[in-house]
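TA notes, week 10

Several of you asked for a full example with nothing omitted. So below is the full record: structure tokens for the whole chain, then the designed sequence directly under it. When grading your own attempts, check the secondary structure regions first.
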């Protein structure tokens, strides 16, 4: 009986202590409990904290990534090119790339210049001097993985507004492709087109300094990006800070000259001063040098990629490439351009039109004298032009 009384007394004492603790907790705003919880959290954090020698999983403050870019020149679709691609009521240009697939598949980003408007067959096809090309040309380039295309050239206005609208309708259906230099509205022109590859964001802007004397539809300047310093500055400022890499395609210079003009060099200097990373030039239809202005890569002219032009210098084009490297240190990113390279491509034209599929594009790595007599001499000559810049350019092959 005594033992039972002692047990009850002990229980009452414990209950009193708990009540007193509860009262103290209320008076101090939960300090007792709060201190206990804080101490517990600190102990838990000590257990979870990694050592300084161990990488933190998911760390996005320090890392490196890269994307490779290849650039080719004009798709200049003369009558002979689209005649060659026509069979049984269908235009098919995919065969042009049969010998280039292994070249292009190495690159993440692939650029080309659509020299002639893709107005399509409904508008009536035509060649020089005012072109209109089958939209199947664009299909072939997209099928080959080209995801950057310039639309601002001296032939963009060859079929007026209807040609531009038809071209824009085609490119608007292509996914994962930035088609720059022509837009369906002012709002569309002023909306940055930004894409991402391997953690690197990029955009393409495109301008032409020439219109062949043709007039942009009144009040619709957005249909064609005619170059001006003020326009490009506003466009670059619009995307600065939103992308890692800014590329600008420039249709400029003088036809059939291997030396950049004063105006090309002036604009190149200006674009570099704005912080543009890569400038891609076309219009001369022949190769001009790859150069650097500070950290900005300048390809003055890629020449023709595919065309029906006459003359060996207009049938050999440049395939310029570079690795875009992004380095992030303590959350701050830096872009560098590494391993700039030059490769050549040859358009083999038919000697007659007794059959189809005569046009073929060959990388110089697949040439021999039966395809292009004296090709080694041409290789040295045109590579000397392409690599005659201020920085070393790797020659491929």
């Amino acid at each position: 009986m005594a033992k039972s009384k002692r047990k009850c007394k002990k229980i009452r004492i414990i209950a009193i202590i708990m009540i007193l603790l509860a009262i103290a907790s209320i008076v101090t705003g939960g300090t007792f409990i709060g201190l206990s919880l804080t101490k517990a959290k600190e102990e838990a954090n000590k257990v979870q904290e990694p050592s300084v020698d161990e990488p933190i999983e998911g760390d996005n403050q320090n890392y490196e990534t890269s994307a490779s870019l290849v650039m080719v020149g004009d798709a200049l679709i003369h009558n002979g090119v689209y005649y060659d691609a026509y069979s049984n009521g269908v235009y098919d240009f995919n065969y042009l790339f049969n010998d280039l697939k292994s070249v292009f598949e190495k690159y993440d980003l692939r650029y080309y210049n659509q020299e002639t408007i893709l107005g399509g067959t409904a508008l009536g096809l035509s060649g020089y001097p005012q072109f209109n090309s089958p939209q199947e040309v664009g299909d072939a380039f997209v099928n080959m993985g080209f995801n950057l295309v310039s639309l601002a050239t001296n032939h963009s206005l060859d079929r007026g507004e209807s040609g531009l609208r038809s071209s824009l309708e085609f490119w608007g259906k292509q996914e994962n492709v930035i088609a720059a230099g022509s837009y369906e509205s002012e709002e569309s022109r002023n909306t940055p087109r930004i894409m991402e590859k391997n953690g690197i964001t990029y955009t393409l802007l495109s301008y032409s300094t020439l219109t062949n004397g043709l007039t942009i539809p009144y009040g619709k300047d957005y249909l064609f990006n005619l170059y001006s310093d003020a326009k490009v500055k506003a466009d670059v400022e619009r995307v600065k800070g939103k992308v890692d890499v800014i590329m600008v395609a420039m249709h400029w210079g003088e036809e059939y000259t291997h030396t950049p003009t004063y105006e090309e060099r002036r604009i190149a200097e200006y674009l570099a001063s704005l912080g543009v990373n890569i400038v891609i030039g076309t219009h001369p239809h022949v190769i001009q040098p790859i150069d650097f202005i500070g950290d900005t890569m300048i390809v003055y002219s890629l020449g023709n990629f595919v065309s029906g032009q006459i003359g060996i210098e207009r049938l050999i084009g440049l395939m310029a490439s570079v690795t875009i490297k992004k380095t992030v240190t303590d959350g701050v990113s830096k872009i560098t351009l590494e391993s700039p390279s030059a490769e050549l491509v040859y358009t083999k034209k038919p000697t007659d039109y007794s059959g189809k599929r005569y046009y073929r594009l060959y990388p110089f790595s697949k040439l021999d004298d039966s395809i292009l007599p004296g090709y080694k001499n041409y290789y040295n000559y045109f590579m000397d032009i392409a690599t005659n810049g201020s920085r070393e350019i790797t020659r491929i092959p």
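Residues 1-11, 19-58 have pLDDT under 50 and may be disordered. Use that as a sanity check on your answer.
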